[in-house]
Amino acid sequence: MSELEEADAWYESAVATFKSSRGREKFTVAVAQAIHALIKANDALTAKYLGQRSTRHEEASVLFGDLIKRNKIDPKFSDLRKLLSKAAAEKSDFDYKGVEVSQATAARWLREVEGFLRAVHEILGE
Fold first, then answer.
1. In 10 A of CB 68, how many CB atoms?
2. Which of 2, 31, 36, 93 could disulfide-pair with 10, CB 3.0 to 4.6 Å?
3. Buried-state track 84-113, b at ≥16 Cβ within 10 A, e below 16
4. In 34-118, where do the E strands start and end?
């Protein structure tokens, strides 16, 4: 399984969790899964174009910035770095602290991560 395929699987799991019949905790779990998808998709890019992956979540946005600076990907994608920064800053809230997430917040995360995944597919031509 490629890193992008794994990212897609994490995202599909996030969507399934979001749509499940479970209680409100499903929104927190869906966001955590979506963030995993986001970071794994970024790893697919950085592995291909930089030959490295983030070893810490905070590195993901730095490596994405390197992709832009080194002209490895089109600068039109530069705004996507903000989502990686936000994800790194908030990931532990969802993964480890179990911060409660509203349905609207979870839906927004899913939309934003879906957009990132579409961009990665476009960049990689997959």
1. 16
2. 36
3. beebbebbeebbeeeeebeeeebeebbebb
4. none
Residue whose entry in the numeric block shows the structure tokens 């390197």: 66
pLDDT value at position 126?
81
CA distance 104 to 110: 10
Q: Which of 16, 38, 22 is nearest to 90 (CA)?
A: 38
Picking from 13, 75, 3, the residue whose alpha carbon sits closest to that of residue 45 is 3
- Residue with the larger pLDDT of the pair 12 and 90: 12
Summarize pLDDT for 83-116 with one digit per residue, the tens: 999 998 877 777 667 778 999 999 999 999 999 9
Enter the pTM of the model.
0.92
SS3 68: helix
Domains within the chain, CATH numbers bracketed = 3-124 (1.20.120.330)
According to the model, what pLDDT value does residue 89 have? 81
Distance CA 19, CA 60 (A): 28
- N-term to C-term CA, the chain: 14
